[in-house]
Each structure stands twice: as C-alpha cells, then as structure tokens.
C-alpha cells in the first residue's frame, strides 16, 4: 500500500535446460527480478516451475551474487568456505574432513580442484568466481541464478567461464539464468534474452533480440552490435 512499483507486467517463459540472460539499463529491476525468482521479495503475480512432464515442482535453486564483500585477511581456505553449507558448528572448532570428496568433485567440475586448500582471500577475481560456481553446484541445483557472473574476470577468464557454463548446462540439463551488462557475453552464451526496463521491452532467442534496433531502444544512444575482426 503506497509502495513503489519496481517491475510491472513481467510475463515470460524460460525453457528447461536453456541458458537465459536478463539485460537492461541500470535501475531497470534486473536484480529485483532475480530476488523475486529466489523468493526473497514479496510480489503480486505467480511464478510456476514445471518439470519436463509439465508437473508443478519446487526446484532446487542456487544463486551466485554480483559481488561478495569479505575480509580478505581471514585465514579461511576454500575448503573451509565451501564447508559452511554442510557444517553444523563453528569452523574454528576441529571437525572431520567428511566433505572432502564432495567439495573436491564440485571444484573439479569448474577446473579449480587445485584451489581447495588455498586461502580464499588470496584468490583472483576469476578464481573466486569459479569457487562460487562450485559452491552453487553443491546441492545439484536444477536452476542456477547468477547476477553478473563475469564481474572481476579478465577476457581469457571470461572465455573459459563461458565454456564452463555451457559444459555444465549440457552435462546436467540445468537451467541457467544470468544478469549481465556484457552484451558480447550475452550474445555468445544465451539461448534466450529477456530485455527489461521496469517492464518487458523485448524477449526471444538471442539472434532475434540482440539487434542494434532493440539495443538502442533499451539502452539509448549509439548502442548496437558492432562486429570486428580479431585474432
């Protein structure tokens, strides 16, 4: 009552086992939409999750935030960090290494097994993103939500991250949804694109949506698709 409407008339369908991107200008409501999918905010309307037989389900979901603030000086290893999801007592109390096989397998999926006993705060941006992705895979999610997963990753790391997400999707049939400002990443990675600015401006397959006309409508100015030769 008397609140501010952040998103309005959002109607969309995300296919099972697809990679979906949400794009839009700053303040468009992208992160709010992610929080709504996670059930973290109240909303009017309905979100329905269906299995391949069109039965309503409550899927296992994981989330990778846009950024994570923490004290890089804390003597916390990657193993300790990932154990927090399965640990029932403070980490400074000695505990059995029962989670090693599970954590090792998830780190192996993202090519970061060697990081398991490294200090978490000394990792690079790309390494942290890999660890966060491994952590998100701990509960074998059916839906993985990511808010700007490319943040803090260099160009080479971004290419590896793209390949990694495609590999995870292909091998697990997981549905991926990510917010991004990197339109080149969206263009190369997403099967479907949802353009929002308080409401849906356009949506569809990546080739249909990622046009100069749509991007100018969404972002204004000289936004568009520019192709260049590179080696």
Structure description:
The protein has 231 residues and is α/β, with parallel strands linked by helices. It has two domains: 144 residues, Rossmann fold (3-Layer(aba) Sandwich); 69 residues, no CATH class. Helix content is 32%, strand content 13%. Helix 3 packs across helix 4.
Supply database-style keywords:
231 residues, alpha/beta, Rossmann fold, 2 domains, six-stranded mixed sheet, 8 helices, 13% strand
What helical percentage do the residues reach? 25-40%
Strand order of the largest sheet: 2-3-4-1-5-6
Residue-averaged pLDDT: 85
- Structural Rg: 19 Å
Sheet with the most strands, sense and barrel status: 6 strands, mixed
Q: Estimate the global geometry from the Cα principal axes.
A: globular
The tally of helices reads 8
- Measure the end-to-end span: 56 Å
Provide the CATH top-level class of the largest domain: Alpha Beta
Proportion of β residues?
A: 5-15%
Q: What's the architecture of the largest domain, going by CATH? A: 3-Layer(aba) Sandwich
């Amino acid at each position: 009552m008397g609140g501010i409407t952040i998103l309005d008339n959002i109607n969309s369908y995300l296919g099972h086992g697809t990679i979906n991107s949400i794009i839009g200008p700053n303040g468009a409501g992208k992160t709010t939409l992610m929080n709504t999918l996670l059930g973290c905010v109240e909303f009017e309307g309905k979100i329905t999750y269906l299995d391949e037989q069109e039965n309503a389900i409550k899927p296992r979901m994981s989330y990778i935030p846009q950024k994570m603030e923490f004290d890089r000086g804390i003597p916390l290893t990657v193993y300790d960090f990932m154990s927090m999801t399965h640990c029932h007592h403070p980490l400074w109390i000695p505990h059995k290494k029962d989670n090693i096989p599970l954590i090792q397998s998830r780190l192996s999926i993202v090519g970061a097994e060697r990081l398991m006993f490294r200090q978490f705060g000394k990792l690079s941006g790309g390494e942290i993103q890999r660890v966060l992705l491994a952590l998100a895979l701990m509960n074998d999610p059916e839906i993985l939500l990511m808010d700007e997963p490319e943040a803090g990753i260099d160009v080479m790391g971004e290419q590896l991250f793209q390949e990694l997400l495609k590999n995870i999707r292909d091998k697990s049939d997981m549905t991926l949804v990510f917010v991004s400002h990197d339109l080149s990443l969206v263009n190369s990675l997403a099967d479907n694109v949802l353009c929002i600015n308080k409401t849906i401006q356009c949506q569809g397959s990546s080739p249909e949506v990622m046009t100069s006309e749509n991007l100018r409508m969404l972002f204004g100015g000289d936004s568009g698709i520019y192709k260049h030769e590179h080696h």
